Structure prediction request, 360 residues.
Amino acid sequence: MNHGVLQRYGNHLPIGTATPIISLGEGSTPLVRSRALAKILDCSEVYFKLEGSNPTGSFKDRGMVLAVAKAIENSSTGIICASTGNTSASAAAYGARFGLPTVVLVPKGNVAEGKLIQAKVHGANIIMIDGNFDSALGLVNSLVEKHPLTLVNSLNPYRLEGQKTAAFEIIDELGEAPDILSIPVGNAGNITAYWKGFIEYRNAGYSNSLPIMMGFQAKGAAPIVLNHRVENPTTVASAIRIGNPANWDSATKVRDESGGIIDSVDDEEIISAYRIMASKEGLFCEPASAASVAGLIKLRSLGMQFKGKRLVCVITGLGLKDPELPSSLIWPDLVEVGTTFEEVETALLNYTLRSGVSNG
Ligand SMILES: *Cc1c(COP(=O)(O)O)cnc(C)c1O
Prediction:
């Protein structure tokens, strides 16, 4: 049974006897070996850390469980966050289960349908603002100064503390840190959290080395790469559509300390990686998650060598959350027929002809 990250990694987390060990079954997500990406990168050991397997479909649950446990410990009356979608989905779920009223500020027209529905069904108070994520985060920061609500954005240090457990799991499974970790970067909390996790686990003697950290922003929302704020960030990958990351300084520190990079990929590269993930790996990920795949493909095409390295690519969220992008792309047509055996058999034969299936 999965008892959650507080139970599994409590001795590495800032929790005490007064902290409730709550869980929705977050963490302990699969590490799955790649087939297609490994070929493209000419690298035999490529793994995906499938964070879409968390209870609300993204890695946000790892940090939310600790932020909410701490809020309960401190007798909080409610939680609040700004969100591009997944933080609000996660806050709403944990808030519902553990009896904390939840307020989420979301940017109008910038949140994927599935994520908004999650916040709704869990009963969060959704406030949609006519601005982008960066202005929503600014507003939430001002609101918590006046109102007794707990901020559960990644500015809340417990969020990153919880999220670092994903790095622990990777080392527990591989027996050592990977050579390279590839990860999408939005507010830059997750890349910061993984690095913290890798360092702490190494210092505790569970691994001997540290990975090179490779973070990828979307080209239209790449403040860290450009080294300046982006006023109107644009990209199909709404989870990383952020122009002024809250954890900007720590992300550049991670890049420099690990000898890594923070680069960007354009929407075309993101969509291409997203299609490869779905059609060749059998993994339906969020557009933002595909940025970590797209980044590696881009570096390989520019001549970077991955042969002999061990790579982990963080797949941050589940594709079902964001139905808008796939419905705007072109896929093979479905075939509509009547109910007679002949009609269905003809459709089947056409299909097997196209896909090269033989009846042996
Ligand atoms: C939040 C999120 C990101 C970005 O993570 P940061 O910590 O903001 O850098 C990437 N992908 C998905 C699916 C997310 O929900």
Q: What stands out?
A: The longest strand covers residues 212-218. The pocket of pyridoxal-5'-phosphate is lined by residues 58, 60, 86, 154, 184-190, 239-240, 286, 288-289, 316-317 (CB under 6 Å). The beta strands are 31-33, 45-50, 79-82, 102-107, 125-129, 150-151, 180-184, 212-218, 261-265, 310-315.
